[in-house]
Amino acid sequence: MDQPSTAQRTTPPLLLLTIKQFIRIELPRLEGVGALSRDKPILTHDDLAAIVHFYLACDEVPVLHERIRVQSILAMLLMAYTGVRPGSIMEATYHANTNEGLVYGDVEVTLVKSNGSLQIVLGVRIRHRKHRRYTGEAYGNLSLIAVSNG
User: Fold this and answer.
1) Which of 40, 57, 64, 102 is deepest in the core (most CB within 10 A)?
2) Which of 55, 16, 48 minimizes the C-alpha distance to 145?
């Protein structure tokens, strides 16, 4: 059975009911919002490259340690190229204070010789997928990045 969310554990039931009614009834009437399906723009490779470039070359906001900047970029790349949810690789609010997420032991870097050139292959084990968090099911190793030297 799923755990109740933080909101469900800490919010009085009557207030939750009022919020749900507002979202379902009042918000569509007042703001014209709805649950209709529509096409949404997706993040392209060029968009991601621009974000990473800005984060590495132009961002002037200081970080506690540069390791955090590298880890953030790795998280962006993992989410963009695998389609995993943020909660699969970092602590999700639904599982607050568990300190669960991707750890260095989940990442394996391998140097592979293929057709006469060397490639760096990054294998990642995703252990915290939605609805599979404590079942032991994982994606296994995903070959995410292959960089040729020639």
Assistant:
1) 102
2) 48
